Amino acid sequence: MNEFAAKKEKLNAVLTAYLKDGLILALSGGVDSALLLACVGKLPEQDRKRFLAVTFQTILYPAEEIETAGKLCSLYGLS
């Protein structure tokens, strides 16, 4: 197994463990939160039942990022 695959497997294991108790992701639409959303979105549906992605609009947060966040949720079946 290459280094990338090992890190991906470890991240999926950590996310699955957190999801057992429930996980809330502050989704900005940026790279970091989008990556975590994508990883959760690829997990089996039964593992995602206790997952919630949240975002909100403020004057400091561009409206385009709110749209991006919504599109990402739809793309991974998490809306």
Distance between the termini: 33 Å
Strand residue content: 5-15%
Contiguous uncertain segments of 5+ residues: none
Classification by helices and strands: mainly alpha
The count of β-strands is 2
Q: Look at the structure and give the mean pLDDT.
A: 90
Tally of individual helices: 3
What's the Cα radius of gyration?
13 Å
Helix and strand run: HEHEH
Strand order of the largest sheet: 1-2
Biggest β-sheet description: 2 strands, parallel
Description:
Helix content is 54%, strand content 10%. It has helices at 3-21, 31-41, 63-75; strands at 23-26, 51-54. The longest helix has 19 residues, at 3-21. The chain is globular. The relative contact order is 0.19. The model has no long low-confidence stretch (mean pLDDT 90).
What's the topology here?
Layout: H1 3-21, E1 23-26, H2 31-41, E2 51-54, H3 63-75
Parallel strand pairs: 1-2
Q: Which keywords apply here?
A:
mainly alpha; two-stranded parallel sheet; 3 helices
Give the structure's gist in a few sentences.
This protein has 79 residues and is mostly helical. The chain contains 3 helices and 2 strands, in the order αβαβα. Helix 2 links the parallel strand 1 and strand 2.
